Amino acid sequence: MPPVLKVHELRKAFGTARVLNGLSFQMRQGEVISLVGSSGSGKSTALRCINFLETPSSGEIEVMGDAISASQNERHETKIVNATNIRVFRRRIGMVFQSFNLWPHRTVLENVTEALIYVLRKGKREADETALSALSKVGMANFGHRYPSQLSGGQQQRVAIARVLAMQPKLMLFDEPTSALDPELVGEVLKVVRTLADEGATILLVTHEMRFAREVSNRMIFLHKGIVEQDARPEELFRNPASEAVKRFLSSVISTVA
C-alpha cells in the first residue's frame, strides 16, 4: 500500500522570508505524526501547503498516489503541475484550524451538514444522519440545534472536528487545535483527538502540547528552519536528540512532559 502522504523537497517563501527549505517526509495509513519545533520553524505553513491553502514555492506533494508539484522560474513565478488534483486533495484531506471557523448564523447541525449537502451533494436526510454520527463521536450530538455563540470554545472546536469527520477524510490535519482555548478546555479536545488516533485515523498534528504529542504519536518530526532536524519515535527523540537545536527545544519544554 502506498503512503497516504509524501512530501518531497517542499519550499515556501513569503517575499524574502524562507519558511520551508526542502521539507521531506512520508506517512502511512493509520499513523499519527506530530510536527514539533520552535515558533517560526514552519509547522503550520507545512500543513497549509499540504492542503494548498498556501501555494508552495517549489516541491512535490503526493496524497494516495496523486501528486502536485510546484516550481519557480527566474522571475520567481510559481508554476503548478497537476493543479486539478488540488480539488482531489481537499476531498481526501480534512483540516482543523486554531480558530473554529464555524458559521455563526447556522446551528451546530447546519455547520456540519453544509459541506455534505453542497460539496458531496448528499440529500438532507442522509446529511443529517452523517452529521449526527460525527457529532456523536465528539460528544456533541445533543447540541445540534444550538448556535456557536451558545457553546464554549472547547465545544466549538469539537464541532469543527465533527465537521471534518463527516467528510470522511483519508488524512486529518490539526493545526494547534487547542491554542485558542482556555486551559480548562484543552483536555476535552485532546481527548477527542486521542480517540480518533486510537480508532486508526491518519493524523498530522501541529501542537505545543508536548506531553500529549509524546503519548499519542507514532512519530514526532522536529522542524528547524523549515527542514526536518529529526524524525523519530517519541521516546527516541526525547532520549537521543539528534542536534543541539532539538536539545535546546526539549530542555525548554521538559517540565511539561515529565
TrEMBL record:
<keyword id="KW-0813">Transport</keyword>
<protein>
    <submittedName>
        <fullName>Amino acid ABC transporter ATP-binding protein</fullName>
    </submittedName>
</protein>
<dbReference type="InterPro" id="IPR050086">
    <property type="entry name" value="MetN_ABC_transporter-like"/>
</dbReference>
<dbReference type="GO" id="GO:0005524">
    <property type="term" value="F:ATP binding"/>
</dbReference>
<keyword id="KW-0547">Nucleotide-binding</keyword>
<keyword id="KW-1003">Cell membrane</keyword>
<comment type="similarity">
    <text>Belongs to the ABC transporter superfamily.</text>
</comment>
<dbReference type="InterPro" id="IPR027417">
    <property type="entry name" value="P-loop_NTPase"/>
</dbReference>
<dbReference type="InterPro" id="IPR003439">
    <property type="entry name" value="ABC_transporter-like_ATP-bd"/>
</dbReference>
<dbReference type="Pfam" id="PF00005">
    <property type="entry name" value="ABC_tran"/>
</dbReference>
<dbReference type="InterPro" id="IPR017871">
    <property type="entry name" value="ABC_transporter-like_CS"/>
</dbReference>
<keyword id="KW-0472">Membrane</keyword>
<dbReference type="InterPro" id="IPR003593">
    <property type="entry name" value="AAA+_ATPase"/>
</dbReference>
<dbReference type="InterPro" id="IPR030679">
    <property type="entry name" value="ABC_ATPase_HisP-typ"/>
</dbReference>
<feature type="domain" description="ABC transporter">
    <location>
        <begin position="5"/>
        <end position="250"/>
    </location>
</feature>
<keyword id="KW-0067">ATP-binding</keyword>
